[in-house]
Amino acid sequence: MFNRRQLLGAGAAGAALVSSRSWGQTANMGLPEAAFMDSAATQITPRPTSGPDYTPVVTLNGWTLPHRMNNGVKEFHLVAEPVERELAEGMVAHLWGYNGQSTGPTIEAVEGDRVRIFVTNKLPEHTTIHWHGLILPSGMDGVGGLSHPAIPPGKTYVYEFDLIKSGTFMYHPHADEMVQMAMGMMGMFIVHPKDPTFRPVDRDFLIMLNAFDIDPGTYVPRIMTMTDFNLWTWNSRIFPDIDPLVVNKGDRVRVRVGNLTMTNHPIHMHGYDFKVTCTDGGWVPESAQWPEVSIDIPVGAMRAYEFTADHLGDWAIHCHKSHHTMNAMGHDVPTFIGVNKAELTRKIRSFQPEYMPMGTAGMADMGTMEMELPDNTVPMMTGWGPHGPIEMGGMFSVVKVREGIAPDDYADPGWYQNPPGEQAYEWTGELPEFTRVNDARTRLTPKPDSKG
Ligand SMILES: [Cu+2]
Fold first, then answer.
1. Rounded Cα–Cα distance for residues 136 and 221 (Å)
2. CB under 8 Å to 31, separation ≥6 — which residues?
3. Count of CB atoms situated within 10 Å of the CB of 278
4. Coiled-coil regions in this chain (predicted)?
5. What is the CA(168)–ligand 1 centre distance, in A?
6. Residue ranges covered by each domain of the chain
7. Residue 181: in which H helix or E strand, if any?
């Protein structure tokens, strides 16, 4: 029987049912159904009703691939194909992905399972899937030409292996890899522990770090870009449209972050300290864990960290490289801070009356500006909070810790109301005269007795 439990999932930001397509029924009789997702909304997977208990992962703006049981083997069907992915409202990218989306659906199984994964290639060129971090037979490793012949367009290959260890793994092509990964082909592979008492959590979030270089007004990523990407994404999604991480106070929370970009990302979460509990190599023993507030996710690696959600609030979670929390920005813009543009502005306005000088006092005005943008792009810095513009983009979201959130409820609870006395406020009393040292050579902190 086809296991439909995941098909009932309702998203945090609206429900989109998994639909299915048939792929040449005569030729592919006996293949598991290839589920298809047409929405970028987070799909919540219900808890398992048979087998070992585990908390299903929540892939932000993603979904878990349904499977069926066939004589004790868990069967999945991935379809590599061109997809249209909404990176944010107002911006769609033409990517390559799996089963209708980039990133591909999350595969979830349990330690000890045997899995059989059918991979149908609907791309215009050959592909493979490498199962990053999984311990498996050499011929199942998915390196085109090395492990097995690459899968030609229109063909289906079968991968089959035992899941001998639990943890967080990834999948991606290992054939024309540079192009296919730049086009968005990647996903996560979660193996839950067979023992439900091994490091259980109440909430388990999943973020795949990826990146695209898409010129404003265009749809297809520039595949030759190596470092100057202009869209830094989580699960092929950018702020302000990455879903929040909704948590009930007191929950034990795990966040698993994989990095298949070409640079490292220090993921910083406010309000908490936490410890790395797992890498794509396996679980970190408790004696080897140390506290952090930013965790660097190396290229081609995964880090999972855990914390207990004791602190109520809206807590930013973001990459600490400040260029990675911007959208669609150019890197060749000159710096104008401190430049007097009055004369220049007067001259330009004589033939272009609506000209606006920008950047002379920083770039914060970009966060509120309503500039005319080309089709199919998003502002560089954007997003509104309860107290004004957030001035972020790219790899940014919010951890929302509240009281009274029901188990498995991930609906956005809105903005946090700071209790009285717990919010920074304006000083409205007298301001003292500021003493400044005028000597340009000695602009150091003045001694208490020095006079300007
Ligand atoms: Cu980053």
1. 33
2. 23, 77, 118, 120, 156
3. 19
4. none
5. 20
6. 5-319
7. helix 177-182
The SS3 call for residue 448 is coil
- Closest to 45 (Cα-Cα) out of 9, 96, 87, 98: 9
Between the CA of 248 and the centroid of ligand 1 the distance, in Å, is: 27
Structure-block tokens of residue 256: 């698993």
Give distance in angstroms: CA of 15 to centre of ligand 1.
30
369-386 pLDDT, tens per residue?
666 777 887 887 788 899
Report the candidate in 235, 249, 131 with the shortest Cα–Cα distance to residue 191.
131
How many angstroms is it from 275 CA to the middle of ligand 1? Answer: 19
Instruction: Using the mean position of ligand 1's atoms as its centre, give its distance from the Cα of residue 255 in Å.
Output: 16
Q: How far is the CA of 325 from the centre of ligand 1 (A)?
A: 8
d(CA 224, CA 126): 19
Place of tokens 């609506």: 354
The alpha carbon of 245 and the centre of ligand 1 are apart by a number of angstroms equal to 18
Phi, psi of 348 (to 5 degrees): -65, -40
What's the 261 CA to ligand 1 centre distance in angstroms?
9
- Distance, CA 273 to ligand 1 centroid (Å)? 19
* H-assigned helices in 253-409: 342-351
Q: How far is the CA of 296 from the centre of ligand 1 (A)?
A: 9
Complete DSSP assignment for 397-417: EEEEEESSPPTT---------
Kind and range of the H or E element at 246? strand 245-248
What's the CA-to-centroid distance between 416 and ligand 1, angstroms? 26
Instruction: Name the one residue in this structure whose structure tokens are 């399972």.
Output: 113
Tell me how far the alpha carbon of residue 264 lies from the centroid of ligand 1, in angstroms. 6
- Condensed to tens digits (0 to 9), the pLDDT of residues 269-325 reads 999 999 999 999 999 999 999 999 999 999 999 999 999 999 999 999 999 999 999
143 Cα to the center of ligand 1, angstroms: 28
Closest CA to 188 of 328, 348, 302, 95: 302
CA 364-367-373 angle, 5° bins: 125
Question: The whole model's pTM is what?
Answer: 0.85
CATH number listed for the domain at residues 5-319: 2.60.40.420
